[in-house]
UniProtKB/TrEMBL annotation:
One Pfam family here: Queuosine_synth
PANTHER family: S-ADENOSYLMETHIONINE:TRNA RIBOSYLTRANSFERASE-ISOMERASE
Domain of life of the source: Bacteria
GO molecular function: S-adenosylmethionine:tRNA ribosyltransferase-isomerase activity
Keyword presence, Phosphoprotein: no
Organism: Neolewinella agarilytica
One GO BP: tRNA queuosine(34) biosynthetic process
Identification of the protein by name: S-adenosylmethionine:tRNA ribosyltransferase-isomerase
Record-linked InterPro entries: QueA (IPR003699), QueA_dom1 (IPR042118), QueA_dom2 (IPR042119), QueA_sf (IPR036100)
Key words, A-Z: Cytoplasm, Isomerase, Queuosine biosynthesis, S-adenosyl-L-methionine, Transferase
Length: 410
């Protein structure tokens, strides 16, 4: 195994995924999805609804409370009124998700524009009804930044509706491109987790799609605790690695929020030596980023809330255990009075880096040549090949609407 993630060859993390194995729609009932279980080198399987019985009492589950926004908008442009697609990625002004979605005046977002050659300049208008009220949503194209654009959104009448309300009425849920179909009415519910609360994602944290209120109640009855992080999933999660090695791949950046009670709860779990299981790769990236949030050195307030791609192998502080590092973070938050932190993480987790905090991962089956598959390999090593071979040979359903797996760290 190369010492640096930069030297990892993406050719070692690919497999043949037949098109018919991609789940185009979810199973009829969320909890009826199948679940592959990997532990101590052994593979078994069952149904997701039995998850509470598979987890030891005292386990801490951590899910992602993010909610998918209606990020895909279609504006008619030109004489033929052929629409261009504006795909909202991240807020630029106001930069905070909650403030931007709650704004009642003009906002600025980083967007992808499909058909941008037909929209060279000027504004585009879209008529939409919101809560029985007819409004006009206006988009003005701004500066191009690489493959994205600044887009200014305003709406009339102004000052009565938030941008989030307008977006919910004017836009649509952005399904992953590999599903190869348009959004359907059922996706409005099924492409959200039952615990989704904080709007901001353009893709669902799909490992959580199998949970139901009944599952969560059964977990509580079993003595399994539930906590939540916020990490807004970006479109970059679908970006395959196209370079021969990871050193040539630019990892996507995603916004996260953490609070003091969560950090304290993780410290308690680590101190007790009890398992921590992350629901999804997004929750895992957020939780593992906590190890690097407290650097206590070159940041004025003692926090590093912008975690870089290579943080897992370039940490510039003396080696500490996960518990010691998170206790440091907890103490800094208490002393500073800053009980809620937000930032961005681009952390890349691979077999060349350590998983510091989590013991288990609940996740779906991911695309070949993806950083998500590398993250799985960070948990189970080369056994990811056995796991995926088993899933293919035994008719498991793949990708966002597919089946589940429960992976324990080797």
């Amino acid at each position: 195994m190369p010492r640096s993630a930069r030297d990892l060859s993406i050719a070692d993390f690919t497999y043949d995924l037949p098109d018919e194995r991609i789940a185009r729609h979810p199973v009829a009932r969320r909890e009826e999805a199948r679940q592959l279980v990997y532990r101590d080198g052994k593979i078994t399987e069952g149904i997701f609804r039995d998850l509470p019985e598979r987890l030891p009492a005292g386990t801490l589950l951590i899910g992602n409370r993010t909610r998918v926004i209606h990020a895909r908008l279609h504006f008619p442009i030109g004489e033929g009124k052929r629409p261009v697609e504006i795909f909202c990625l991240d807020p630029l002004q106001p930069v905070e998700y909650a403030m931007s979605l709650g704004a009642q005046t003009q906002v600025q977002w980083k967007c992808l524009i499909g058909g941008n050659r037909r929209w060279k300049s000027g504004v585009a208008d879209l008529e939409v009804e919101v809560n029985g009220q007819q409004i006009t949503l206006t988009a003005e194209r701004g500066k191009q930044r690489g493959n994205s654009f600044d887009v200014y959104f305003s709406w009339t009448p102004e000052g009565e509706l938030t941008f989030g309300e307008v977006l919910a009425a004017a836009g649509s849920i952005p399904l992953p491109p590999y599903l190869g179909r348009q959004t359907e009415a059922a996706d409005q519910d099924r492409y959200q987790t039952v615990f989704a609360k904080t709007e901001g994602s353009v893709a669902a944290p799909t490992a959580g799609l199998h949970f139901t209120p009944e599952t969560l109640a059964a977990l509580q009855k079993r003595g399994i605790d539930w906590e939540e992080v916020t990490l807004h999933v970006g479109a970059g999660t679908f970006k395959p690695v196209s370079s021969p090695t990871l050193g040539g791949h630019e990892m996507h950046r995603e916004y996260f929020e953490i609070n003091l009670p969560l950090v304290d709860r993780i410290c308690q779990q680590l101190a007790a030596g009890k398992p921590i299981v992350c629901v999804g790769t997004t929750s895992l990236r957020c939780v593992e980023s906590l190890f690097y949030v407290a650097n206590g050195a070159d940041q004025p307030d003692g926090f590093n809330t912008h975690i870089g791609q290579w943080a897992a192998e370039e940490a510039d502080f003396p080696e500490k255990t996960a518990l010691a590092r998170l206790e440091c973070l907890r103490d800094l938050m208490v002393l500073s009075g800053n009980h809620e932190l937000n930032g961005y993480t681009s952390i890349l987790l691979s077999p060349a880096s350590d998983i510091r905090i989590a013991d288990g991962l609940i996740t779906n089956f991911h695309q070949p040549n993806s950083t998500l598959l590398l993250l799985v390999a960070a948990f189970v090593g080369d056994d990811w090949k056995r796991i995926y071979d088993y899933a293919l040979e035994n008719d498991f359903r793949f990708l966002s609407y597919g089946d589940s797996s429960l992976l324990w760290k080797r």
